[in-house]
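Per-residue structure
===
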Amino acid sequence: MRKILELLPVIALAAFGGFAGTLVNRKEGEPYNMKKAISEIVIAIFSGLLIHYVLLEYDVGENLRTAAIALAGYSARGVLALLHGLFLDHLKKFKFWLLPAVFCAVLLLAGCQSFSHRTYYEPNDVTMTRIDGRAYGAVQEETSHDGLPDWSEGKSLGVSVIGK
């Protein structure tokens, strides 16, 4: 929720740029079409968010980033075409080895995760421990797993894309 509140100015600025773009790009005498406007505003928000994250990666100042987000909303389709040309067309050069490399990386690193699970006794005056402001009793059972999975004993392979 906090991240959405931080992105709210970016979303509003890109949406306003998209709204301004729909007003400027309509033909003279043509009535304002709300369906078209809403779809253009959604595309503008997406374009503004993409530009926001790309410019954050390159440590661009806040004023220039704000102007770029508004312009990305205004000319959203052109910005998306430009980003498509820069990134996706560049990736086509690596299409022969990229997919197998990603597959091998996922296969090898899928089990390289660690987890731990603890169950506690009910807290009392003797065994109570406070962790991050919460009261816990003594540890009843603890299970932990680190490193690579042992696939030789198992009959199935579980792949998780969600981290800790």
Remarks:
- The mean pLDDT is 76.
- The longest strand covers residues 139-145.
- Residues 114-145 form one domain.
- The CA atoms of residues 79 and 128 lie 58 Å apart.
